């Protein structure tokens, strides 16, 4: 359900209904509040950005016996009359799925009554998947309702690209960097889908020269690629089927692949050359203070949630000495630890040790790079972002934070958030 909300919650004219108990809407409230604090702390908060009303139908115990259809009908009537939205998106909870409410039938009936698009996502929270599944299904419903194949009289806009997914809103560093890379290929118009898109902007998407999936997590990227493939099948929009441009090697390959797809190989070579110059300038400034610093890389995320390859490339470029990879036993199940123990030696020659055997190692390092906050307040820590940062500027941002840790005077510890 939070995936459905994230897909349309900032879309102009949208309203969202959770067909659920009230507790489900509190989860979203807390998620968004935390996200707002983080964006304000990083100075990327977009003030005044449209936020859709989120209304809960308020399923209660008696609805598990008698059904919640009438409750949902009343909720739709209230939302339309109160907020006068351009469309309504209904997200179903597990409870709605278990009791068997026909939400799509209710939405169809309400649409005829109000002469307004009332859309229902065809899944029921954790019964049908995770956050990314909800995000994908909401995107699909929007595409089916508001997009049409390009007519023969219309040409694709060679300067328009559709960016699929959400990387923290229009002002986020990642989205700004993605748009900067796209401008090498002549793109000046950017359609963001599904998040932060008006109905008018959604209707323009079939005119795009290409769509580019955005993501960052191993379990989320396949859903975004699936959406890109379906947009191509339904509306003829070609898409870039390539790994995300994280760190330097993948950024180069991503630029080359986009150049091949668009027939703009010269633009790709220009982009790679200029990004190489920019990266080398930053390495010249930053690596002297990092050379031979002893560090530990602490991992507490499973392979399902985290691909450490970009961190290993960051470590190699920085010139630091990786003493060990430490598995944070308190954050990993035995099975997840075993999977990492098997997989990590393919990516690094550094020893892989569990945290309960790493006290001596942690006492000997200059600082640690970690997926989790470590309890040792005397240790210098770089807390890794959950989503890896995009492009050369994302890479140099992490190098700058590592350099700040390396330059700290004396035995001062503390944590820097990436």
- How do the strands of the widest beta sheet line up side by side? 10-9-8-11-12-13
Strand content: 15-25%
Distance between the termini: 28 Å
Q: Spell the H/E element sequence.
A: HEHEHHEHHEHEHEHEHHHEHEHEHEEHE
Counted beta strands:
13
Low-confidence stretches: none
Going by helix content, strand content and strand pairing, the class is alpha/beta
Gyration radius, rounded: 24 Å
Instruction: Using the alpha-carbon principal axes, give the shape.
Output: globular
The major β-sheet equals:
6 strands, parallel
Mean pLDDT: 91
Explain what you see.
This protein has 16 helices and 13 strands. By secondary structure, it is α/β, with parallel strands linked by helices. The strands form three sheets. A six-stranded parallel beta sheet has the order 10-9-8-11-12-13. Strands 2-1-3-4 form a four-stranded parallel beta sheet, sandwiched between helices. The longest helix is centred in the middle third of the chain and has 22 residues, at 265-286. The radius of gyration is 24 Å and the shape is globular. The mean pLDDT is 91.
Entry keywords:
13 strands, single chain, 418 residues, alpha/beta, four-stranded parallel beta sheet, six-stranded parallel beta sheet
Write the layout of secondary structure elements.
Layout: H1 2-8, E1 14-19, H2 22-41, E2 54-56, H3 63-66, H4 69-83, E3 87-92, H5 94-99, H6 103-114, E4 118-124, H7 131-146, E5 157-164, H8 173-183, E6 189-193, H9 199-204, E7 208-213, H10 221-235, H11 247-262, H12 265-286, E8 294-299, H13 309-318, E9 321-327, H14 334-343, E10 352-354, H15 359-364, E11 367-370, E12 380-383, H16 391-406, E13 414-417
Parallel strand pairs: 1-2, 1-3, 3-4, 5-6, 5-7, 8-9, 8-11, 9-10, 11-12, 12-13
Helix pairs in contact: 1-7, 4-6, 7-10, 11-12, 11-16, 12-16
